[in-house]
Design goal:
The protein is α+β, with helices and mostly antiparallel strands. The chain has one domain. A hairpin with a 2-residue loop joins β3 and β4. The termini are far apart. About 3% of the residues have low confidence.
Length: 301
């Protein structure tokens, strides 16, 4: 073999090796981009752009929707999931990658029709086929405890439990709130090794549609919740850094975005209830389902 032929063969081998390395790197990048714990690869691939996982929470204007409207529709929905109660009102949908992946509702009778001391704000998330995925409860006892400690500043505490996790995530409004200043919410998600990951949601100072920025424990911006000002029912476009995205965090943020419809009302409710309790005009009785979340796990059974 001549020297020229040897050099040509070497160049060809080098080009082939570079091409193989480039293909391997591209496959690795694609795997990193589309790998979101708890999310299918197809959905993750469509929902991931520019290093962020994107989703949208869209609040419907009326109850006239294909999920609830129709003869015996509620009965069929209850048959699909025991979590779909008779007073469940589906009011929002979640879309990821352009496809509807979730439905969010709340218990209307326990919130809209109950007396002040008996009110309970309960959200539930279902899959598109109405299988239960998560529940988010306003913890009345703990919320009132924190509100009393904050001397009347409403401190809402929500408990979020999902179908795929052994831990309850507690989402709490900060009592460190000055008038006309942005509110903050904090929560943490336990990791598989027992190491928690802490997050903070800060409402934007100039805010018209319910806008928040998500920070991690190192005060790095890792996500955003952007409310649409000119939407009629309510619409929130959200994104999370791909390295932080997993189904548990996505579920908390999706429920939090839907809760914005009730955020002002829940603050006013807690302030009013605090005044009534302070003046001795009412006594709070906790719901058995909420009491279950307070029970000592080491108690004798």
């Amino acid at each position: 073999m001549t020297a020229a032929a040897a050099r040509a063969e070497a160049r060809a081998n080098t080009a082939a090796a570079n091409a193989a390395a480039a293909d391997a790197a591209a496959d690795a990048r694609a795997e990193v981009v589309t790998k979101v714990p708890g999310v299918s690869k197809a959905t993750a691939a469509k929902a991931t752009r520019n290093g962020y996982y994107h989703f949208m929470v869209d609040v419907w204007i009326t109850n006239f929707n294909a999920i609830e409207f129709g003869i015996y529709k509620r009965t069929r929905n209850r048959a699909k999931s025991r979590q779909f109660t008779t007073d469940m009102d589906i009011f929002a949908e979640v879309t990821e990658g352009g496809e509807r992946t979730g439905l969010i509702g709340y218990r209307e009778e326990t919130w809209k029709k109950a007396q002040t001391k008996d009110k309970r704000l309960v959200f539930k998330m279902f899959t598109d086929t109405l299988n239960w995925r998560a529940t988010m409860d306003l913890m009345l006892g703990r919320s009132m405890q924190q509100t009393i400690a904050a001397r009347g500043t409403p401190v809402m505490v929500y408990a979020v439990n999902t179908d795929r996790d052994d831990f309850v995530v507690y989402l709490e409004r900060s009592a460190n709130k000055w008038p006309f200043m942005p509110e903050h919410f904090g929560f943490f998600i336990p990791g598989p090794d027992g190491q928690p990951v802490f997050y903070r949601l800060k409402r934007h100072f100039i805010n018209l549609g319910g806008d928040y920025t998500l920070y991690d424990e190192h005060d790095n911006k890792v996500g955003n919740i952007d409310g649409r000002v000119f939407s009629i029912g309510g619409k929130w476009k959200c994104k999370v850094r791909i390295e932080h995205a997993d189904r548990r965090l996505l579920t908390v943020l999706q429920m939090f975005a839907a809760m914005q419809v009730f955020n002002g009302e829940s603050r006013r409710y807690l302030r009013r209830l605090w005044r009534m309790v302070r003046r001795g005009k009412t006594a709070i009785v906790l719901d058995p389902q909420e009491l279950d979340l307070y029970k000592n796990p080491r108690r004798l059974r």
